């Protein structure tokens, strides 16, 4: 399914929400397992993290240009990890919504909370960041990130 079609599906679902179609526990579990693997991949390096994105996947960071494609996403992560003026200690993540738009497209909203500590020293401050992801199931049956965007709540 092309990126334009996914955008159209997403837009239509926001204007005319689809009738709720029960998803199997296995479908929901497969998305949850995907996130567990993907989040663990950050420690394995930017290329491994980017491998969880579709080849035409996109990161839409706040106040920055989009990173499109796995190579650009890996480079974006490499640069952003170096440029961050703080370290992050997450306290937890809440899944706010997992909405299956079809058998192959999922909207996943979540909120991450924790503490940010300046690398230069100083007191930690709490943070709360909301995320909006669109996942697509590829031809091999695995989930991949098509779009990811986020913003701070505080």
Give the tags:
single chain, 154 residues, alpha+beta, Nuclear Transport Factor 2, Chain: A, six-stranded mixed β-sheet
Listing every helix as H and every strand as E from the N terminus to the C terminus, the arrangement reads HHHEEHEEEE
Give the helix level as a range of percent: 25-40%
Total domain units: 1
Note the main sheet.
6 strands, mixed
Q: Beta fraction of the residues?
A: 35-45%
CATH fold node name:
Nuclear Transport Factor 2, Chain: A
Would you tell me the overall average pLDDT? 88
* Helix/sheet category: alpha+beta
CATH class: Alpha Beta
Through-space gap between termini: 36 Å
Count of helices? 4
What does this structure look like?
With 154 residues, the protein is of the alpha+beta class. The chain has a single domain (3-152), classed as Roll (Nuclear Transport Factor 2, Chain: A). The protein is built from 4 helices and 6 strands; from the N terminus they run H-H-H-E-E-H-E-E-E-E. The protein has helices at 3-15, 25-40, 46-50, 70-83; strands at residues 53-60, 67-68, 86-100, 105-118, 125-137, 143-152. A 6-stranded mixed sheet has the order 2-1-6-5-4-3. The longest helix is centred in the first third of the chain and has 16 residues, at 25-40. The termini are far apart.
């Amino acid at each position: 399914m092309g990126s334009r079609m996914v955008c159209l599906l997403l837009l239509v679902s926001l204007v005319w929400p689809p009738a709720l179609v029960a998803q199997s526990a296995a479908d929901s579990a497969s998305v949850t397992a995907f996130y567990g693997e993907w989040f663990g991949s950050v420690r394995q390096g930017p290329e491994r993290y980017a491998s969880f994105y579709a080849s035409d996947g996109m990161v839409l960071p706040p106040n920055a240009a989009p990173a499109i494609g796995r190579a650009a996403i890996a480079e974006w992560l490499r640069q952003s990890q170096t440029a961050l003026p703080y370290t992050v200690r997450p306290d937890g993540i809440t899944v706010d919504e997992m909405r299956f738009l079809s058998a192959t497209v999922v909207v996943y909203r979540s909120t991450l909370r924790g503490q940010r500590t300046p690398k230069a020293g100083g007191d930690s401050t709490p943070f709360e960041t909301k995320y909006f992801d669109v996942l697509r199931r590829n031809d091999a049956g695995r989930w991949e990130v098509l779009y990811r965007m986020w913003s701070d709540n505080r």
